[in-house]
């Protein structure tokens, strides 16, 4: 079952240099490196919003925006 | 505030190579500052020369890009004149412990309230991959095609012996630790040293057949161990907080001296 409000993963392809760290350490295989050697989201619905990619990215090119429902759940 | 609020976006994408660990340090340094809720105006970044020292230019704090190895000397001046500011000095291994080795040990001896981040990639990356005092024996570099015979410094032991009152080590694989340690180091009232082992896939990784950035990060994951678990794994490099002690801070002592001199001076007239 797909969540109603999935997490949004924004990738700044102008800043991404294609090192592949985000894809290699993603625990849910949400990201892959595409043919142009840039990170690409292939399975956003699997994202658990652990933000490992965002924190590991040496190029500051990834931003994970949690769904409002998840934010609320965490806040409470 | 988000990460983007702390950086100078006009200089991005940065000059570091794909997979360079310094970017990860920048990323988590910003997050440490965000966690502490510090104002951008309360922070001064003083850096020297080298790949790692470019970090100061990318951050939207008060920044000072100075001479090779002399960042701590400039930082001492900044801190003594404006002790209320948080002074952070990002340095590379060569910048901190070869060219700036003397400044490093004397800043530690004085215990001046500065946060020194040693981004240790074990190589001089910017100038083409010469070996540094932290490369260690048998590593290959542009200037050591048959391997270096120089033993390396232990940053933690050196900083501890020189008198630093907070000493920690982590790696670019352990991103949460970077954030935690840097935040602790900024808050610590004394000379704080955080060594972050950082990968240089372009020179160190390639010359030493350590693979790409991902492979080098896996090596950090497998080759290091938390300090308390090290006795079981003596082969691995320990990470964690090695020293956290109280020692008289330099700026405070200087202020006392100034006040004492003024009082005595008033008594004389």
Automatic annotation (TrEMBL), chain A:
InterPro entries according to UniProt: 4Fe4S_Fe-S-bd (IPR017896), 4Fe4S_Fe_S_CS (IPR017900)
Entry superkingdom: Bacteria
GO molecular function terms listed in the Swiss-Prot or TrEMBL record: iron-sulfur cluster binding; metal ion binding
Domain 4Fe-4S ferredoxin-type, residue spans: 7-36, 38-67
Name of the protein in its database record: 4Fe-4S binding protein
Name of one Pfam family that matches: Fer4_7
Sorted UniProt keywords: Iron, Iron-sulfur, Metal-binding
From TrEMBL, chain B:
Coiled coil (residue ranges): none
GO molecular function per UniProt: oxidoreductase activity, acting on the aldehyde or oxo group of donors, iron-sulfur protein as acceptor; thiamine pyrophosphate binding
Sequence ranges assigned to domain Thiamine pyrophosphate enzyme TPP-binding in this UniProt record: 49-196
Pfam families recorded: TPP_enzyme_C
Alphabetized CDD domains for the sequence: TPP_OGFOR (cd03375)
Keywords tagged on the record: Oxidoreductase
GO annotation, biological process: cellular respiration; small molecule metabolic process
SUPFAM superfamilies (UniProt xref): Thiamin diphosphate-binding fold (THDP-binding) (SSF52518)
InterPro entries: 2-oxoacid:Fd_oxidoreductase (IPR051457), THDP-binding (IPR029061), TPP_enzyme_TPP-bd (IPR011766)
Protein's name in the database: 2-oxoacid:ferredoxin oxidoreductase subunit beta
Organism, as annotated: Desulfatitalea alkaliphila
Lineage: Bacteria, Pseudomonadati, Thermodesulfobacteriota, Desulfobacteria, Desulfobacterales
């Amino acid at each position: 079952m797909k969540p109603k409000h999935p997490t949004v993963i924004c990738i700044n392809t102008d800043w991404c240099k294609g090192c592949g760290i985000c894809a290699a350490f993603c625990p849910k295989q949400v990201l892959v490196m595409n043919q142009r050697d840039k990170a690409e989201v292939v399975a956003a619905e699997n994202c658990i919003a652990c933000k490992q990619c965002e924190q590991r990215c040496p190029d500051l090119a990834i931003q994970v925006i949690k769904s409002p429902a998840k934010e609320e759940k965490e806040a409470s | 505030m988000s990460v983007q609020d702390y950086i100078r976006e006009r200089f991005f994408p940065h000059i570091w190579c794909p997979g360079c660990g310094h970017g990860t340090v920048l990323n988590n340094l910003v997050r440490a500052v965000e966690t502490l809720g510090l104002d951008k105006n309360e922070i001064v970044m003083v850096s020297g020369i080298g790949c790692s020292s470019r970090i100061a230019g990318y951050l939207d704090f008060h920044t000072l890009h100075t001479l090779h190895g002399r960042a701590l000397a400039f930082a001492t001046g900044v801190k003594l004149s404006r002790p209320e500011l948080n002074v952070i000095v990002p340095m590379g291994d060569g910048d901190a412990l070869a060219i700036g080795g003397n400044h490093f040990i004397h800043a530690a001896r004085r215990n001046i309230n500065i946060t020194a981040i040693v981004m240790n990639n074990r190589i001089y990356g910017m100038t083409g991959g010469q070996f540094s005092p932290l490369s260690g024996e048998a590593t290959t570099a542009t200037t050591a095609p048959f391997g270096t015979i120089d033993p390396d410094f232990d940053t933690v032991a050196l900083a501890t012996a020189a008198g630093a009152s907070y000493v920690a080590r982590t790696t670019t694989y352990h991103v949460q630790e970077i954030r935690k340690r840097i935040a602790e180091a900024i808050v610590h009232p004394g000379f704080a040293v955080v060594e972050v082992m950082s990968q240089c896939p372009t020179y160190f990784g390639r010359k030493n057949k350590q693979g790409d950035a991902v492979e080098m990060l896996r090596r950090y994951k497998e080759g290091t161990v938390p300090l308390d678990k090290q006795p079981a794994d003596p082969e691995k490099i320990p990470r964690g907080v090695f020293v956290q002690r109280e020692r008289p801070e330099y700026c405070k002592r200087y202020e006392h001296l100034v006040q004492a001199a003024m009082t005595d001076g008033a008594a004389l007239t």
